[in-house]
Amino acid sequence: MVPAATALAADRPPSPAGSAWLLVDGPTGEVLAERAADTARPMASLTKMMTALVAIESGDLDRVVTVVPAAVAVGESSAGLRAGERITMRDLVRGLVVGSGNDAAIAIAYAVAGSEAEFVQQMNERAAAMGLTRTRFANPHGLDEPGHESSPRDLAALGREVMKVPLLRSLVGNRMATLPGPGGEGSRRLQSENDLLAIMPSADGIKTGHTDDAGYTLVAHATSPALDRDMYAVLMGEPDRQTRARDAKALLEWGFGQFARPVVVRRGQPVASLEVQGVPGATVGLAPRVPLAATVRLGEPIRLRVTAPAMATAPVTQGQRIGRVEVMQGDRVVGGAPLAADRAVAAPGFTDSVRTAFAGIGSVFT
């Protein structure tokens, strides 16, 4: 058996400049670092993550809708829509997520619910269904309004929900997007304000925001293929765009630095031994046929859990699959592989049968 081991603990997390932040391990949901993660505060355009979810869940994304005058009148960040133009819901979502268009948010609200107020009610119902207890929406775009707020922990959960939707996952990592021009003439090019995408190749989303009350906000996501792992970071109240991006990058990179992916068991390394039923004295070792690597949290003990029968049954062929080994950290399974016999054992012969019989007789009289 491979003995338990403990990987070396990593350094302390960075401290972003914002008023609140959170770092979450994607596969487990474990919070790796946080500050004021449950305090509700203005969220700015992070609001649009929920707007996009409600829009997509409303039905056919290829339906054509008419942009209402209220959408054009909202001002601030814009997808360049014109009142009366006809555009697909899919393009509105693109303009909302990548271009952060406040006009797209209002156009979606009217197209889905008939009014902004009714759409906001749907947003709040969706938030309640998700268990977002620190979140309340007062509009679909995120401009400052009394009571319009969320917490880093709620926003991380909302970001996870966004990344489950294939269309949104494909959009949030884009720095640019193109919408057809009004009436199908020409095109409109929109640019994301997520500067993290430019300085961290592994980052692929999710949404930025900025208002006077909220400061600079961000829900970020990044993936490490080498670790087979992803991370979510939420930053609120950051002082400017550049600091927001740098702080997110530092937090995410530190998060990935809390893990390693070592080879825990080498190929062919026995982790258990079984006696062979009917063949006295014979044993087979059980070993993985490939190296067993696992992504492990630094600073936590590692142990192996073997699941196998009490005895092997002859004949056994070399390489025959018998049982499984799993790498454990606490109660979590962080890796695993099938086990195979490291040698062959023939079926019991006459001599083996006699030995087994006499062993049984001996046990009766002892």
Q: Secondary-structure map with pairings?
A:
Blueprint: E1 5-6, E2 20-25, E3 31-35, H1 48-57, E4 64-66, H2 69-73, E5 86-88, H3 89-97, H4 102-113, H5 116-129, H6 152-162, H7 166-172, E6 176-180, E7 187-191, H8 196-199, E8 203-211, E9 215-224, E10 229-238, H9 241-256, E11 259-260, E12 263-265, E13 272-277, E14 283-287, E15 292-293, E16 296-297, E17 301-307, E18 312-313, E19 321-329, E20 332-341, H10 350-365
Parallel strand pairs: 13-18
Antiparallel strand pairs: 1-17, 2-3, 2-10, 4-5, 6-7, 8-9, 9-10, 11-16, 12-15, 13-14, 14-20, 17-19, 19-20
Helix pairs in contact: 1-3, 1-4, 1-6, 3-4, 4-5
Question: The CATH topology of the largest domain is what?
Answer: Beta-lactamase
Terminal CA distance reads 32 Å
Count of individual domains: 2
Radius of gyration: 29 Å
Listing every helix as H and every strand as E from the N terminus to the C terminus, the arrangement reads: EEEHEHEHHHHHEEHEEEHEEEEEEEEEEH
* Low-pLDDT segments: 1-8, 361-366
Strand order of the largest sheet: 1-17-19-20-14-13-18
How does the major sheet shape up?
7 strands, mixed
Indicate the CATH class of the largest domain.
Alpha Beta
Strand elements, count: 20
CATH H-tier superfamily of the largest domain: DD-peptidase/beta-lactamase superfamily
Mean pLDDT: 92
Tell me, briefly, the overall form. Answer: elongated
**Name of the CATH architecture of the largest domain:** 3-Layer(aba) Sandwich
- Tally of individual helices: 10
Structural class, from secondary structure content?
Answer: alpha+beta
Strand content: 25-35%
Could you estimate the helical fraction of the residues in percent?
Answer: 25-40%
